[in-house]
């Protein structure tokens, strides 16, 4: 929710996470730093995400031009309102739930998508340190504790790998 257009380099396929949005009862929306120093990070984007973000930018620009409110500034929020201001995090949740219901998809929370992303990366063989950095965890230990259940699948592969190292090669003379 804190992502601003200036945080994106779509030509390079990079996204910099610099801030988060917090909804407070006393002060409304508050822009804050990520929880840890590792929360500030640079993430490489898959090409499909770059294409979707380009479409998002184009759609925002077209609406702004029709309304005569000018161009997008680097400080305007990617998922902000028409003026480029941050939206309440609940708005995104409501929009997500609407799409899920309309498309008759299984109900999955936005936070569960974060877990799915991490699980898919780990299942594809990405190392824990890379996944941890991508998630903005303070330490790979946190990533390991949250996703430890995924590693039992690789234990059999580890046994096979050590078997191959220890087993004498029958083709040697």
Number of domains: 2
Briefly note the structural class of the backbone: alpha+beta
Spatial gap, N to C terminus: 64 Å
Look at the structure and give the mean pLDDT: 90
The CATH architecture of the largest domain is Orthogonal Bundle
Q: Give me the CATH fold name of the largest domain.
A: hpI Integrase, Chain A
Q: For this structure, what is the CATH class of the largest domain?
A: Mainly Alpha
Task: Sum up the overall morphology in one term.
Answer: elongated
The main pleated sheet reads as:
3 strands, antiparallel
Task: Report the sheet-strand fraction.
Answer: 5-15%
* Helix count, DSSP H or I runs of 4 or more residues: 6
Which strands sit side by side, in order, in the main sheet? 1-2-5
Residue share in helix: 40-55%
């Amino acid at each position: 929710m804190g992502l601003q257009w200036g945080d994106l380099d779509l030509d390079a396929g990079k996204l910099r996470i610099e801030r988060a949005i917090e909804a407070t009862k006393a002060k409304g929306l508050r822009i804050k730093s990520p929880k840890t120093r590792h929360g500030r990070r640079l993430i490489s984007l898959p090409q499909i995400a770059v294409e979707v973000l380009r479409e998002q930018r184009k759609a925002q620009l077209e609406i702004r031009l029709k309304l005569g409110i000018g161009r997008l500034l680097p400080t305007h929020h990617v998922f902000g309102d028409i003026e480029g201001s941050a939206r309440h995090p609940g708005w995104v949740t409501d929009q997500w739930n609407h799409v899920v219901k309309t498309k008759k998809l299984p109900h999955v929370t936005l936070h569960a998508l974060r877990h799915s992303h991490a699980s898919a990366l780990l299942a594809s063989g990405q190392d824990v340190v890379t996944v941890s950095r991508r998630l903005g965890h303070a330490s790979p230990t946190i990533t390991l504790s949250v996703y430890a259940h995924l590693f039992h699948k690789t234990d059999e592969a580890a046994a096979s790998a050590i078997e191959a190292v220890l087993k004498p090669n029958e083709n040697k003379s």
